[in-house]
Structure formats: C-alpha cells, structure tokens
Amino acid sequence: MSKKDETFRGVLDAEEKHAHWGTIGVALIVGLITLFIFLFVWRKGRVSRRGICLVGLCESGKTLIFSQLIYKKAVESFTSMKENVGVLDIANKGALKLIDIPGHERVRQRFFDSYKNTARGIVFVLDSFSLNKDIRDVAEYVLITKGHRKLYKTIL
Predict the structure, then answer these.
(1) How far apart are CA 107 and CA 100, in angstroms?
(2) What does the alpha-carbon distance between residue 147 and residue 154 come to, in Å, rounded to a whole number?
(3) Which SUPFAM superfamilies does the annotation name (predicted)?
(4) Which of 4, 88, 117, 152 has a C-alpha 20 to 30 A away from that of 49?
C-alpha cells in the first residue's frame, strides 16, 4: 500500500467515525423527543380522582349528609334536581370534592355518568325506614350504578 492510499484510508476512517457519532446523536435526540411527548400526553391524560359521590334514591338523606359534612349544620332540603358540589378538607390528607348526586330517577344517571370518572369512591345512601318499600328500586340502582344493566334486566 502506498503512502497516498494510507492517507486516503485514514481520512475515510475519520469520516466513518464522525458518521457513527452523528447517527448516535440523531438517535439520542429522537429518543428524547419521543420521551418528552409520551410524558406530556401521559400527564395530560391522567385523571385526578379526588371526588366522593353520594348516590341513592330520592329522599334517602344524601343532601342532609352533604350539608353536615360541608357546612357543619343540618339544612331542610327538598328533592334535588341538580347536583351539590363542595370541598371537604381532611386534616393531613388534603381536600376531597364531595358530590351529592340527585336521586330523582329522571336525572340521577345523567349526573352520575358525568362525575363517575373523577370519583375516588361512591357512597350509596339508604333510608332504613323506607328500605322494605323501596328494595326493588334500591337493587336496580345499585346494579345500574355498578354498570350491570344487562344483569339487572336478566334478573327481572
């Protein structure tokens, strides 16, 4: 091999090394961009579940429990046609969003559907005085609340 060939070969080796570093750099940049996009979409899509839904039939005492917890006093209430929303501060735990879902059968499912994805928990309120009279309605609402509409229709 001549001196000219060795010089030419040395130049090609140096260019190949730079090409490898360029490829590695581009792959690293693409990987970081993909990671940042993934983290952005993941954080944006995450739902904060800090709500507690109070659900039950009409006149079961949901609004009374809501007012006792939020306002620390009992209020006289009537059948709710819209939801009540308040913030319940719990010492050393933070704040919870308390939602009183109306019990009227025409509107309860619509309000429950709008809040169930943000709920950390569901409290089903029963009136023990009228439970024997409303047992069928309670069973239906519990099954529907849990998402078992087909099962309820099969049982009936």
Answers:
(1) 13
(2) 14
(3) P-loop containing nucleoside triphosphate hydrolases
(4) 152
Contact indicator for 65, 56 with CB cutoff of 8 Å: no
The domain of 97 spans 51-147
Mean of all residue pLDDT scores within the chain? 78
Helix or strand or coil: residue 30?
A: helix
Sequence letter at residue 121: G
60 and 95 in a single domain? The answer is yes
| pLDDT confidence of residue 86 | 92
Q: Are residues 17 and 74 in the same domain?
A: no
- Positive or negative CA dihedral for 154, 144, 146, 78? negative
Over residues 133-145, the pLDDT tens digits come to: 888 888 887 777 7
Its pTM stands at 0.62
Find residue 148's DSSP bridge partners: none
DSSP secondary structure code for residue 103 in this structure: -
DSSP state of 63: H
Structurally, how many domains does the chain consist of?
2
> For 25-74, how does the pLDDT look when each residue is reduced to its tens digit (9 = 90+)?
788 888 888 888 888 777 765 556 788 889 988 888 888 889 999 888 88
